[in-house]
Amino acid sequence: MAGRVTLLWFLLLTVGGGTAIGLATAPGPWYDTLQKPAFNPPPWVFGPVWTVLYILIAIAGWRIWRVERDGILTKLWFAQLVVNFAWSPIFFSLHSIGLALPVILVLLVLIASFVVMAWRRDPIAAWLFIPYLAWVAFATLLNASLFALN
């Protein structure tokens, strides 16, 4: 029972937190006026992708929490979540494409570090982060392209 409650907590934190931040910082007229690269996805893609990713992130965090609550992997998991949650307000609320770029680069490094370090401890948690790593790598390219174009 305690394991399910903890999983629910991780899901509420990641999916709930990500959804709340997404709603509070939803792209608006400012974003609509930006020049975008040809590979920019349509707006409807982001919500479903992030929902799935946040579920995978939560499960990975929960798995790591179960085996090392105070370890480096747990700290790394929480660090990536803080940086993840910081990006949208910087980009969409502050309209700071340039400041968002180093933030997403740090996020990319944190995610990659988690994958590498979790591989030995819990390969499933590492695999759960692979789609997240791929999406954030793409989002980093998108952020850099938006910065260059605008």
N-C termini distance: 51 Å
The outline comes out as globular
Residue stretches low in confidence (pLDDT < 50, at least 5 long) are none
The rounded Rg comes to 16 Å
**Mind describing the biggest β-sheet?**
none
Provide mean pLDDT, rounded.
96
Assembly state: single chain
Which structural class should the secondary elements be placed in? mainly alpha
Q: How many β-strands, per DSSP?
A: 0
Report the total helices.
6
Hey, roughly how much beta strand do the residues contain?
Answer: under 5%
Instruction: Estimate the helix proportion, in percent.
Output: over 70%
Query: What is the H/E order?
Result: HHHHHH
Describe the structure concisely for a colleague:
The chain is mainly α and 150 residues long. Helices cover 83% and strands 0% of the residues.
Structure description:
- The protein is mainly α and 150 residues long.
- The protein is 83% helix and 0% strand.
- The chain is built from six helices and no strands.
- It has helices at residues 2-24, 29-33, 46-67, 72-93, 97-121, 123-149.
List keywords for this structure.
6 helices; globular; 83% helix; 150 residues; 0% strand; mainly alpha
Topology summary:
Layout lengths: L1 H23 L4 H5 L12 H22 L4 H22 L3 H25 L1 H27 L1
